[in-house]
């Protein structure tokens, strides 16, 4: 397993009330990955939501036809860095779930490359999460999860799965990749829910 930490530079700013406890403000965008960057082409990309009631799929072209939102949020990595006022563009999870019949309370995010992470559905609904494909006005770089990644900015950034390919809706909360390796099941940066 390899970890990439390119360009991590920053310093603690205790006076900034947007900075959760234990976090350091950065102005670059560190790259952290648990393996190689998968090569995902938009012509092969699809996003799938699976629930007990069935399956809903979008190709890249179909996904681009959905209502798109511009989002400005702060992001916080479990490795102690935070980046404030980041600009993204993508589709709200609310839009994707609008026509999905679901009684489940949890989701498992699946990525190209095999990565998984669990997220309660209440943390994905009500304008809290998106599948994004642009960062700072440019297509999302592969090293940051392009062509599309999950964005759940109120949780630690490992919950914002890179190279997203779908959500499986679940009745029970099951741990994903990092959660099986000791990270917290939920991951709230304001409560410092870093590890089990």
TrEMBL record:
Superkingdom of this protein's organism: Bacteria
InterPro entries, per the entry: OxRdtase_Mopterin-bd_dom (IPR000572), OxRdtase_Mopterin-bd_sf (IPR036374)
Residues of the Oxidoreductase molybdopterin-binding domain: 35-178
Pfam families, sorted: Oxidored_molyb
Matching Gene3D superfamilies: Oxidoreductase, molybdopterin-binding domain
UniProt-annotated stretches for the region Disordered: 1-20
PANTHER family (UniProt xref): OXIDOREDUCTASE MOLYBDOPTERIN-BINDING DOMAIN-CONTAINING PROTEIN, PROTEIN-METHIONINE-SULFOXIDE REDUCTASE
Protein name: Sulfoxide reductase catalytic subunit YedY
Source organism per UniProt: Microbacterium azadirachtae
